[in-house]
Design brief:
globular; alpha+beta; 31% strand; 4 helices; 7-stranded antiparallel β-sheet
Length: 147
Amino acid sequence: MNFQTEAQHDCYQKVVEWLPEICDRVSHAQNPIFSLQLGSATILVEIRPFRELESVIYIWAYVATDVEVSSDLLLYLLKQNDIFRFGGFSMADDGDIKFHVTLLGASCQQNEFKLALDEVLNSADRYDDLIVERWGGRRAADALFDI
């Protein structure tokens, strides 16, 4: 596995120890990325370097794909970001919408990690139907099964 810093490696090892207690369907990629199946949702957990002595845990899930991007949709997502405890929506260049939470790796505790996973899972599950119903496209969970 390619780690860019020691802090990234240390954080990865910490998350590896936590995951079996949280989820029994975990895939390890070649990079410091985990894929978790929780119900019908797929959540990705990336351990990214952040400066030399820190790392971040980037937890995210696709919410919707093939959505027609409009100013109304963007304003809605931006306003929703204001009400989340932590995390928020983002959009890729191709218009795919995802929900994500970023945590500092070194100081992250297992309960904080679990809460962040729940926030991503619940937000993706709550907003996928709403976004597709109002702006079109497909739920990311449905689109993943088409691959």
